[in-house]
Amino acid sequence: MANSDAPAVPSLPWRFSTRTLDPDEASEQGTQTYYPLRMDILGGADQFRMSIDAMQLGPILIGDCRFDADIKMDFAELRDFYHINIPLSGYLDSRNLGNEITATPNRAVLYGPTGDVQLSRWSARSRILCIKIRRAALEAELERLLQRPIRSPIDLAPSMDLTHGYGRVLRDLASMLAGQIGHKDPLTRQEIISAPLWHSMLTHLLASADHRYREELLSPRSPCRPPALKRAIEAMRASPETPFTAAGLAEIAGVSIRTLQAAFHTHVDVSPMAYLRDLRLERVHADLVASDPPRTSVTEVAHRWGFTHMGRFATAYSKKYGVHPVKTLRSAG
Question: Three-state SS for 298?
């Protein structure tokens, strides 16, 4: 999360617990679990103790975290992640992008990929669910729900109400998942159960936090998209690697090129070919994140999904995800 030349954070097991009385050890474990950080004890150093019980759930890492002394922490911008802190007890004062928020059991604090983060006071004995979310996963979830590309990053509000509605459901879901961490055979280890759960976490976050797309996301759907538009979108989503052309898509849709382009601009806000490019970028990104770096090349994955000009591909990928595809591959695994 710091500079691009910062050492890679070691990979972690899918579930782990750690306890320490050593502040230096705590800083190291915090860096390994979350992001490179600087930690200072504000008071009660003789009572210092850190505990983390964490679990990876698809693109989400949920940590049940506690410090037995008042501490502060500083992070550089998160870049490839979104983050939520949900206190179950106590409070957390923090600052990001000029927003000073006190998180409590009734209000979560959220950080986007940009801007340094200062946790000015994590109150002693506060128990906080620290939820780290891959940026690409949350943005892909929003695009899936809206069925159109979005502008990245998502401008999530800096805090979120947890007392009712979607926010309360999100808090309860996060608490339930945290409760699974200590189970001998947690149900979340089974893909058939874990995938719907982490998708639900992302959906409830997008529904509860304010952002520029929330009204569209929650508003009743406008009348069904024209059948011609649906046919073109279904064809592209089913096989984005196919070398579609505007004329070929118009033929699939059963309308003229001009009519199809007008339908895309009216209902999706992009051209047919821009929609196809974004689909391909999503597939490339998903494959790079899941790849084994020594056995995979960016060129191979890009060609698999229909990109033939590597320079234009790399530019489009970097613009969408804020990082070169080679870096995504290096951080995979």
Answer: helix
Unique residue bearing structure tokens 């669910």? 129
Distances (CA, A) of 303 to 46, 325, 326: 58, 13, 14
Reading the block at residue 16, the tokens are 């782990």
Non-local CB neighbours of 313 within 8 Å, separated by 6+ positions: 284, 302, 307, 325
Task: Quickly tell me which residue has 């983060």 as its tokens.
Answer: 117
Specify if 8 maps to a domain.
no
The rounded mean pLDDT for the chain is 88
CB-CB contact of 21 with 48 (8 Å): yes
Per-residue pLDDT, 13: 58
3-state SS, residue 152: coil
Q: What are the b/e assignments for 106-120, b being 16+ CB within 10 Å? A: ebbbbbbbebebbbe
Q: 9: pLDDT confidence band, cut at 50, 70 and 90?
A: very low
66-103 as b/e: b if 16+ CB within 10 A: bbebbbbbebbbbbbbbbbbbbeebebbbbbeeeebeb
State the pTM of this model. Answer: 0.70
The answer to whether residues 322 and 260 belong to one domain is: yes
Contact 158, 101 (CB under 8 A): yes
Do 40 and 189 sit in the same domain of this protein?
yes
288 contacts 325 by C-beta, under 8 angstroms: yes
Q: Which residues contact 100 (CB under 8 A, 6 or more apart)?
A: 93, 94
Domain coverage including residue 35: 15-215
Q: Alpha carbon of 108 to those of 29, 57, 98, 197, 211: distances in Å?
A: 23, 20, 17, 20, 15
Residues 66 and 203 in one domain: yes
180 and 247 together in one domain = no
For residue 88, give the 3-state DSSP assignment. strand
